[in-house]
Specification:
Elements (H helix, E strand, L loop, with lengths): L5 H25 L3 E3 L4 E4 L2 E2 L4 E6 L7 E7 L5 E9 L6 E6 L7 E9 L5 E8 L13 E2 L3 E4 L2 E2 L4 E6 L7 E7 L5 E9 L6 E6 L7 E9 L5 E8 L1
Length: 233
């Protein structure tokens, strides 16, 4: 007896196609984009003792998006902060965390998640009883628009900077925000390249205040400001 299976095969193919499409759709919508922090997210300082104030930034969020954050402790426990921040017009969020005086020593992770985009950044850092050994490779922070190298150093360190986004051949002025909130004028002005990028350096004095500093570069015509955090420790 001959049996016509063409209709059954056709319907099976259609059902299989629908299931495959649903699985793909679920995979796209249900899994947030998690990224281990590299060029577009950072922490300053990357290493500190208990009681250190750590400053974080992360990018790729939506304009004005609410960003929640929490911590993964070295023992795997989740430490809720019950706090949130908001991304700026460029999709960048900045926030701080004061580690307690009895903070567990080891590798921590700061996790930031965008409420709407589902974008997740995982930013590792260290809580140690002392500073890293001398001679350790100097970290570098960059978000694509600016950078500083090294990220941290003792008084007397020469810090090298670059910043993008200015007008071609625009004059750019520089100053520093010290850890105590005072402004330090370095009396330096330079011109950008044709690509709108400027490179410069600063020799920190031997008696420089220890703590979190900011190098500010401002375009004379565009009024664009790039604020570059770094540390003297």
């Amino acid at each position: 007896m001959r049996v016509n299976l063409s209709g059954h095969i056709s319907r099976f193919t259609q059902v299989a196609g629908i299931v495959t499409a649903l699985v793909a759709l679920i995979a796209l919508t249900a899994v947030p984009r998690a990224v281990t922090a590299q060029a577009d997210a950072a922490v300053i300082p990357p290493v500190g003792g208990p009681g250190t104030e750590f400053a974080f930034f992360a990018t790729d969020f939506e304009d004005g998006e609410k960003v929640g954050y929490w911590l993964n402790a070295p023992d795997g426990a989740i430490v809720a902060t019950n706090e949130e921040t908001f991304a700026n017009d460029d999709g960048r969020a900045d926030w701080m965390w004061d580690s307690p005086d009895n903070a567990m020593l080891g590798t921590w992770e700061m996790v930031a998640e965008g409420e709407d985009s589902g974008t997740i950044w995982v930013i590792p850092f260290e809580v140690e009883s002392g500073l890293p050994e001398s001679g350790a490779p100097a970290p570098r922070i960059t978000n694509g628009d600016y950078a500083v190298e090294p990220l941290a150093g003792p008084p007397g360190t020469e810090f090298e900077f670059f910043a993008n986004g200015f007008e071609s051949n625009e004059d750019v002025g520089f100053w520093l925000n010290a850890p105590d909130g005072s402004i330090v004028d370095i009396n330096q002005k330079d011109n950008t390249t044709e690509g709108g990028r400027v490179d410069w350096s600063w020799d920190s004095p031997s008696d420089a205040m220890r703590g979190n500093w900011e190098m500010v570069a401002r375009g004379v015509d565009s009024n664009l400001e790039q604020v570059i955090p770094f540390e003297i420790r």
